What we know:
In chain A, helix 1 (about 15-30) crosses helix 12 (about 240-255). Chain A has a 7-stranded mixed beta sheet, with helices on both faces. By secondary structure, the first copy, chain A, is of the alpha/beta class. Chain A has helices at about 15-30, 45, 60-65, 70-75, 95-100, 110-115, 135-140, 155-170, 190-205, 220-225, 230-235, 240-255; strands spanning about 1-5, 35, 75-80, 85, 125, 145-150, 180-185. At the A-B interface, helix 2, helix 5, helix 8, helix 9 and helix 10 of A face helix 2, helix 5, helix 8, helix 9 and helix 10 of B. One magnesium ion binds near residues 15, 16, 39, 43 and 127 of chain A.
Amino acid sequence: MKTWAVANQKGGVGKTTTAVSLAGLLALQGRRTLLVDMDPHGSMTAYFGYDPESVNPSVYSLFEQGADADQVRGAILPTGVEGMDLLPASTALATLDRQLGARSGMGLLIRNALSRVADEYDSSFLDCPPMLGVLMVNALAACDQLLVPVQTEYLALKGLERMLHTLHMIQRSRSQELAYLVVPTMYDQRTRASVDCLGELRRRYGDNVWSGAIPEDTQFRDASKRGKPLTVLHPWERGSQAYRKLLDALLDETATA
Amino acid sequence: MKTWAVANQKGGVGKTTTAVSLAGLLALQGRRTLLVDMDPHGSMTAYFGYDPESVNPSVYSLFEQGADADQVRGAILPTGVEGMDLLPASTALATLDRQLGARSGMGLLIRNALSRVADEYDSSFLDCPPMLGVLMVNALAACDQLLVPVQTEYLALKGLERMLHTLHMIQRSRSQELAYLVVPTMYDQRTRASVDCLGELRRRYGDNVWSGAIPEDTQFRDASKRGKPLTVLHPWERGSQAYRKLLDALLDETATA
Ligand SMILES: Nc1ncnc2c1ncn2[C@@H]1O[C@H](COP(=O)(O)OP(=O)(O)OP(=O)(O)O)[C@@H](O)[C@H]1O
Ligand SMILES: Nc1ncnc2c1ncn2[C@@H]1O[C@H](COP(=O)(O)OP(=O)(O)OP(=O)(O)O)[C@@H](O)[C@H]1O
Ligand SMILES: [Mg+2]
Ligand SMILES: [Mg+2]
């Protein structure tokens, strides 16, 4: 199983949309994919029609009660898309940092949980909340590669630098490399600021930026109402086509990884 | 001094943009406004050209070292807009929840800090991070009214209900009312989903939703590059005009509050 974490401390950049879109494409190709919602706000869980306030078991209960194979399998839900399952988030995740506090050793919980079901899925996507904390530490430890969606706008560039600096520090303390790919999102080629930002991203981050960009596409908003990924509902839409190209690039890399 | 907190656990809905835009309008009217950045990602601090990684003192140092009048005044920075000052965020705020853990009594720190400078400003805006935690508890305790920017898209509606439920609970434990106003943002009247969502928001939340809506306007992205609010740079832009109407509604209410 190959695991991608999708993260950015900046909010509303397309993290959930990226995870759901890529998983939808893999499901269409007949691969089994596990989506993991690590966001206390539970956007992905709500996307597939579940209620983060009442869903139980969930990612949170794995922290609370342990994550052996039965507990992990017991928390997994169907998404209504063949081959795509969900490990849901509960709103109680918002209390995790306060509860765990300085207690160490909880940084590998998600990685261990995923290893219990690794032979049942081809890939998994971890949807991260817009914050740096114990959930982020878990996602970094559990993933093979980090995808960082970045809106093509000026302030987002500054925030990216700071965040990558922090993530490098977390990985260094575990003597691990940070394997990341920046994914430009909500790109609007008619807006000067968007075009300039994309150029700046490529100048600064070189090969760590995907060679394409996800275009601004209002169909993403509509798809969330239907509870299915846009890539499953309308595979020929501009937004879907862009995610297909991204997936091709990611699978290419996998082949050589 | 009247204090507004701008919050929503959903990311990227226009919290920072709302705080900066409203404060800019008040500054143009000759009123003194204090912006408080409570987001560990420091979007607002970076907006005005400061570095959240190195800025010190900051909101974080008030938690660490105390918030008497000198400490609060000592942390306030100019924004380059006459009459508008900034209490900056530092990236260290990301560790606050873990550090404070179950320690009680830190929920009133920001309210007490603001009271030290209340006679030097007409109004203040607290820009909250997209999370529920000790910073949110502080913002609720410190504000007279909560502004909740909500993107007019389907998933945002579900998330709003859950969040308001949690905020009501926090306020109830302090036997306080939750005074909030939902502000529809990024409204695109050409998109069916946007129009439907606005209608649904009004149906569900009645008078707790502002009667207007902030339109989708790419000029907001461009303004952040210039480090000035759009309402100061281009007061006649569609986006600025919408915030002017919102401010009128807020000041009307203040008059009767
Ligand atoms: N390429 C795109 N073009 C237009 N809209 C998009 C695009 N990608 C995502 N969106 C919309 O932008 C909003 C934010 O996307 P999403 O919720 O995926 O971001 P996020 O980073 O997961 O947010 P959060 O920080 O709250 O977790 C949603 O309304 C989504 O439908
Ligand atoms: N009305 C609008 N129309 C178009 N773009 C907007 C509008 N309001 C804000 N934006 C843009 O949307 C992005 C997100 O806005 P902003 O950073 O203010 O949201 P936020 O809720 O503060 O995000 P976070 O959750 O990360 O704190 C920014 O690029 C901003 O320029
Ligand atoms: Mg998300
Ligand atoms: Mg913000």
